[in-house]
Amino acid sequence: MAQLAAASFHPLDLLPYQDRAEKLLALVLNGQPSAPPEIAAALAELTETLKRVPCAEAKVLVFGGGTGLSNIIGGDSRHPGWPAAPFAGVKQLFPRLRSVVCVTDDGGSTGELLKDLPLIAVGDLRHVMLSSVSREKLQKQYELTEIEALEVVAALHQLFNHRFNRLPDNPEAVLAQCGVELSTLPVFMERSLYWLLVEIFNNEHLQPLRQRAHCLGNLLLVAAIYQQPAMAQVDDRREPVSPPPAAILGGLRFLADMLGALPEAVLPCTTTPATLKILYDNGVLVSGESKSAQAGRRCPVDRVYVEFASRPEVPPEVFDAIAEADIILFAPGSLFTSIIPVLQVPGLAAAIRQNRGAMKVLLANLWVQAGETDLVVGEGDRRYHVSDLLRAYDRNIPGGINGLFPQMLVVGMREIPGSILQNYALEGKVPIYLDRERVCRLGVSPIEAAIASQSDFDGSRVLQHDPAAVATAIRVLWGLQGAGEQEGVAAKEAAGQETSLLLNPRQQTPDGRWRQMRRRLAQLDLAPQWQPVLAEILWRHQDILPTHLDYADGLQLVPVDQWRRCQEWDNVFSFYEPGDRMIRVRADINPGSRQFEIAFLVALGQSLLGNYAAAKEKSPVTTAGRPVGYIFSLTLRPEDERHSFFSTDELVTYLELARMCRASREPVTFTRVVNGREGFTPPGLLFGLTYAWYLDNRFAPHIEYKMSITAAETSDLVPEQFRISARRQGLIDFFRQRVFWQ
Fold first, then answer.
1. Of 245, 203, 241, 237, which is closest to residue 220 (Cα–Cα)?
2. Euclidean distance between the first and final Cα of the chain, in Å?
3. What strand order describes the sheet that includes 359-363?
4. Upper half-sphere CA count for residue 588 (Cβ side, 13 Å)
5. Euclidean distance between CA atoms 502 and 276, whole angstroms
6. Are 363 and 72 in contact, with CB atoms under 8 Å apart?
7. What pTM value is reported for the model?
8. Cβ-based neighbours of 102, under 8 Å, separated by 6 or more
9. 552, 607 Cβ separation under 8 angstroms
């Protein structure tokens, strides 16, 4: 009784959470708790005060990419239900809002564009631009009623998200296919959109785009870029023409302003074409953002790097926006493919740190993402937490996370019905839970709030950030900072390192590589129908060097009844014949299948060895007259008679990694003793399988099994584990450095 009598009570104790900011966010987002009348009145007054925090003049800058950025700005503009509420989100409360968008995407329509044009990825720019359309600007600019503004946005949503396999023959046919009547739009918007449609058909640089599958919004944006006056200053003799930064920014300004967004609502983080490279914990380094979620490497991502086609250029408008910002937000999204590539652009992270007066907030991701945040570096058997996300940022951002986001806004899991989490768990989706103490040690203040979409609980049952709730939460935090109520976390455990800048040593954009590969395929002896099939395989695997095609002269299909290839060691229905330098594939393998892709990559890998072997033989080993195994021997061909991708030293290194023993008296001869009951993968086949596995580990489960020991915990009780693990790691390093030149 004495303890109870001495206890003090504060009205805010009625609210959930411990942190004051969290309590106030709960008050505004969740509503008032039951309380005596005098306390209820005070809480109601406080709620209204927080909801009226002035924010219309605050300059907000948001970094991110794709769906996560689009969603918090104004809702996911690709979602079918977006036109019903297109004006919610941060832009509604903070009209002076701009976005800096990641430009390393290489999937879908954007990937198809990159085959034909030396351009940055535009898909996320288009996506975010549509979400940035402002109701006030749209109504004022075109003198529209609120209902008319909604009708215009619905038409734009239909037009910009329309996808086709091949562009129809003329602008009218395009509009008919989309089901959009431009005459229902304001006159200037109608004429501008029709002009861009005409340019898609008339501009000589854009003609290749008409033959591919595309999103119409991407083509309209590209047409706006290629029609800028700055394009007239480009040397027309170069094909295709690379748009200068002024043309890219001019096209974005024109389209954004015409659609009803601020002219500089959407800015690219760089105007230099760039590719994302993903380094896994086992040493595999692969190129392409689209590979991160598909690979399923079964080992965590350690780092990502942005490889620029030339010295990266950052628009001055981006640095100006950073310096002027009152609020800097980092949108949720794919951990390694949205925020990190933006902040790896030289100068951006440092510029953000230099703005010491801005409120800086990171919005934490909601779900574990396959291929990115499903495994933890160094602790592959542990689930992912918010602190792991911060450590990944710290490893990958130049200078680490210090000075970038002292606050982190996290979805409060207590606000999500257990049935929703259970349903997601059944689908294999796991939330990233907050480990508060570890996050604080990293120098970041975590703030939990009910910022998940409540309407989705009852509707589509898809759990994501609620644009309106996020905007309200930012407003409350802005008000608290203005009142001096927000305090940072002093302790800091993170120690970020400067990330090196990667430049493409071949100074080649994706479209340049695509044309080079097509020209090389045209020189091979293969049926015309095979060229597009092989071209798509080579496009998907950007780490394949053009010089990898120098040791094969063509591809032939072998009828099943003529297939004589021994399948003693494998079920790979392809091989490379060094005698005539041909890749041979069994004719019953479907050209469009995954099995064909595996077969081609395995044989292409084998072709890099060329005619390296002068002789191969098996000699039986017996004891007491009984066969117990055999000796496999291989003799290297003399260097002056050899055509191979590798030098003699490199071949020796590889053969030793393949467990072949070099003879001391005959240094060109290598042997391997094989137990009669032991499986054996010959060096040539092992090389082809490892080549395919390195590009996509789904292609060679046998090699994936072999390499899994690199992730296993070694034991002092079994020293052989160390030797095997070191050999496997050496093989990975050999492929990264000697095969793919990384």
1. 203
2. 71
3. 266-268, 97-101, 60-64, 327-330, 359-363, 407-411, 445-449
4. 7
5. 10
6. yes
7. 0.91
8. 64, 65, 66, 121, 124, 269, 337, 338, 339, 341, 342
9. yes
Residue entry with tokens 């510029």: 351
pLDDT, position 225? 96
Nearest to 432 by CA among 468, 393, 386: 386
Residue 379 is given by DSSP the state B
Please give the pLDDT value at position 711. 57
pLDDT tens column, 482-497 = 877 665 554 455 455 5
Please give the DSSP secondary-structure letter assigned to residue 2: H
Give Cα separations from 720 to 281, 629, 662, 716, 727 (angstroms). 22, 22, 20, 9, 11
The pairing of beta strand 214-215 with beta strand 163-164 = antiparallel
Residues comprising the chain, all counted? 742
DSSP 677-709: TS----HHHHHHHHHHHHH-GGG-HHHHHHHGG
What tokens were used for 632? 């496999």
Strand-strand pairing, 554-558 and 582-586: parallel
Give dist(CA 407, CA 355) in Å, integer. 15
Helices (H), 299-361: 316-324, 340-343, 348-354
Positive or negative, the CA dihedral 393, 356, 307, 77 is positive
CA distance 285 to 673: 33
Measure the CA–CA gap between 59 and 94, rounded to whole angstroms: 7
Tell me how far the alpha carbon of residue 645 is from its chain's centroid. 31
CA-CA-CA-CA torsion sign (324, 327, 330, 331): negative
- Confidence (pLDDT) at 458: 46
Query: What residue type is 87 in one-letter code?
Result: F
Instruction: Quote the pLDDT of residue 73.
Output: 96
Q: What is the pLDDT of residue 299?
A: 79
Residues of the chain whose pLDDT is less than 50?
Answer: 457-460, 490-491, 494, 498, 500
pLDDT digits (tens, 9 = 90+) for 194-239: 999 999 999 988 988 888 889 999 999 999 999 999 998 776 656 6
Number of neighbouring beta carbons within 10 Å of residue 399? 17
